[in-house]
């Protein structure tokens, strides 16, 4: 498997046109991903307008410190994967592979931290329908917040998991010289996917962790 | 004569040039600074401005990732259109849902 042996399929004029078609297709997919998470965010918005105080109370139950660290981890991983694409474009292989492995490791550490959060929420009785022990006037609204929380963060973690698998495959292939400055479209598309996962989290962070923190 | 052979050989090298190391690292530094600002401002009592700051900072962070890391700034303009379309439909979705939820008045039964 060598990038230099990569042939352009006959429907394309040249590698540039092939890359343009691939990135356009990826962006069309990413637009559907934006709307997939968008529905969950729209549901969140409506419920928050309906139960503003309960959402603030529920948000205070989340772990803001872990949430902030997780955000920093994902932002750093996004930079690492962007640098790895750059490195491949400049002809580097070892550093590019290392950066991809670093990105995957940061993704895994994100998942582990989120696992600890889920466990803490289980202990606190914040999992609707499974282990929910909240009482008081806001109990119903908090239940709705945590339903949305598990759907949003659960689907996000699923995306992170898929991203980690893709990144490891890309690291393996980069190490085995599948990509070089002339051909690296799959690596570029994987990086786009990972950045989108990062963008989703950029919005999850203030909506889940930062509500009602003042005072 | 074969038209393909006549065209000069184009490879990925003729696509968008990779961004500089500095721009990537500065973007990361800006993102982390904005994260700290976001966490800090959330702890201050700013009333409704808390939410404006939270979402405003998130939008700036997302734009940084989109333009620099995802290379929308230098890549094909068509990609910018597709990306904008995704967010535009999301804005329509949320705006129309909110327009319903915020303007609904509970009508008393006529009997």
In short:
The complex is a heterodimer of chains A (215) and B (111). With 215 residues, chain A is mainly α.
Which features characterize this protein?
heterodimer; A: 215 residues; mainly alpha; Four Helix Bundle (Hemerythrin (Met), subunit A); two-stranded antiparallel ribbon; 6 helices; 2 strands; 75% helix; B: 111 residues
Question: How would you describe this protein?
Answer:
Chain B: It is found in: Cell membrane. Chain B: One of its GO terms (cellular component) is plasma membrane. The complex is a heterodimer of chains A (215) and B (111). Chain A contains 6 helices and 2 strands; from the N terminus they run ααααββαα. Chain A has 215 residues and is mostly helical. In chain A, strands 1-2 form a two-stranded antiparallel sheet. Chain B has helices at 3-6, 21-43, 48-69, 77-103. In chain B, helix 2 (21-43) runs antiparallel to helix 3 (48-69). Chain B is flat and about 80 Å long. Chain B starts with a helix and ends in an 8-residue tail after the last helix. The chains are: A mainly alpha (215), B mainly alpha (111). The interface between A and B is large, with 59 and 55 residues.
Write the layout of secondary structure elements.
The complex is a heterodimer of chains A (215) and B (111).
Chain A: H1 15-50, H2 52-59, H3 64-89, H4 94-123, E1 126-127, E2 131-132, H5 139-175, H6 185-209
Antiparallel strand pairs in A: 1-2
Helix pairs in contact in A: 1-2, 1-5, 1-6, 2-5, 3-4, 3-6, 4-5, 5-6
Chain B: H1 3-6, H2 21-43, H3 48-69, H4 77-103
Helix pairs in contact in B: 2-3
């Amino acid at each position: 498997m060598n990038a230099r042996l990569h042939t352009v399929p006959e429907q394309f004029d040249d590698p540039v046109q092939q890359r343009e078609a691939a990135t356009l297709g990826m962006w069309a997919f990413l637009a559907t991903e934006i709307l997939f998470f968008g529905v969950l965010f729209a549901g969140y918005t409506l419920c928050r307008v309906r139960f503003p105080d309960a959402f603030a109370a529920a948000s205070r139950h989340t772990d803001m410190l872990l949430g902030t660290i997780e955000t920093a981890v994902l932002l750093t991983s996004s930079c690492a994967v962007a640098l790895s694409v750059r490195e491949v474009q400049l002809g580097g292989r070892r550093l590019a592979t290392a950066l991809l492995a670093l990105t995957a490791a940061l993704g895994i550490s994100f998942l582990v931290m989120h696992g600890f959060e889920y466990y803490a929420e289980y202990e606190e009785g914040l999992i609707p329908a499974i282990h929910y022990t909240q009482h008081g006037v806001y109990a119903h609204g908090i239940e709705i917040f945590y339903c949305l929380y598990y759907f949003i963060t659960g689907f996000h973690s699923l995306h992170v998991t898929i991203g980690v698998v893709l990144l490891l495959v890309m690291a393996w292939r980069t190490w085995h010289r599948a990509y070089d400055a002339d051909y690296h479209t799959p690596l570029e598309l994987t990086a786009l996917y990972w950045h989108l996962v990062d963008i989703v989290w950029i919005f999850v962070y203030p909506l889940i962790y930062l509500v009602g923190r003042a005072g | 004569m074969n038209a393909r052979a006549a065209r000069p050989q184009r490879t990925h090298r003729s696509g968008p040039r990779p961004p500089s190391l500095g721009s990537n690292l500065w973007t990361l530094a800006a993102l982390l600074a904005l994260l700290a600002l976001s966490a800090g401002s959330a702890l201050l009592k700013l009333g409704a401005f808390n939410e404006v700051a939270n979402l405003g900072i998130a939008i700036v962070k997302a734009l940084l990732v989109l333009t620099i890391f995802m290379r929308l700034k230098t890549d094909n303009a068509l990609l910018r259109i597709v990306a904008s379309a995704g967010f535009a439909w999301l804005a329509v979705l949320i705006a129309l849902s909110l327009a319903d939820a915020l303007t609904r008045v509970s009508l008393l039964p006529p009997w």
